[in-house]
Design goal:
Immunoglobulin-like, 2 domains, 1 helix, 50% strand
């Protein structure tokens, strides 16, 4: 009996030091980013799931792809803000503590339309887990509509896997562009003018991730955008 209790205590002790860090999302997404030269951000929530042990989180930027006229401003964690650091930084989370992390970006009015992004690698002191989080901010021409809350376009299922159904209620839409996380067009689909209200877009050759669908008219003008997740 004593051996069993000691064994259980040993197991719990081992588990106790393996604090886990939970990240709210893999991609922090900011659609319709304002190009007003001010710094804007969306935050990432980070939680220490251990109820007994503190954990130190270390992060460093591993990649950035910025459009012309865009720049990274302040990078803030629970302890301090830094001016786009190129070296690793750390902060400590107490047991069960939740904190925030964000990357501020700026874009001037003449900056490019599309998506800018920066990726950060997070590690923690309790185990060898590594997490890559991408901060993706997208700006569009002022005339572009946000179809997220519009009935002009209905998309299902979303998240999707091998295909997505798109119900188009705007007769001016004649083309659909698929953009990846850095704003690069990876696919284009023509919309049949004699179509019924729903078309099926294949996704078999598209890797898992978050994408933007751009809906264009016959002059190539972007009428609106929607976000989809492929998994």
């Amino acid at each position: 009996m004593k051996k069993t209790i000691l064994l259980m205590m040993s197991v719990f002790s081992i588990l106790g030091i393996q604090a886990q860090v939970n990240y709210s999302v893999d991609t922090v997404f900011y659609n319709y980013f304002p190009k007003d030269s001010s710094e804007h951000h969306k935050k990432l929530d980070i939680t220490n799931t251990s109820t007994t042990d503190s954990v130190t989180v270390t992060y460093i930027k591993t990649n950035e792809n910025l459009l012309g006229g865009w720049l990274i401003g302040g990078v803030c964690d629970v302890v301090a803000c830094y001016d786009n650091p190129s070296v690793s930084k750390s902060f400590k989370l107490a047991p069960s503590q939740s904190a925030f992390f964000y990357v501020g970006m700026r874009a001037d009015q003449e900056g490019g339309n599309g998506c800018s992004e920066a990726t950060y690698k997070f590690t923690n002191s309790s185990n060898a887990d590594t997490k890559f989080i991408t901060f993706k901010y997208c700006a569009w021409p002022a005339s572009t509509k946000n179809f997220e809350s519009s009935n002009a376009v209905n998309i299902y299922p979303n998240p999707a896997s091998s295909y997505v159904n798109i119900a188009l209620n705007d007769k001016d839409i004649v083309g659909i562009n698929v953009l990846n996380v850095i704003g690069r067009k990876i696919a284009h689909f023509n919309v049949d003018a004699s179509r019924n209200s729903v078309m099926r877009v294949p996704l078999e050759n598209i890797a898992n991730g978050i994408y933007l669908l751009q809906f264009t008219n016959n002059e190539g003008k972007i009428l609106g955008v929607r976000r989809i997740t492929v998994n």
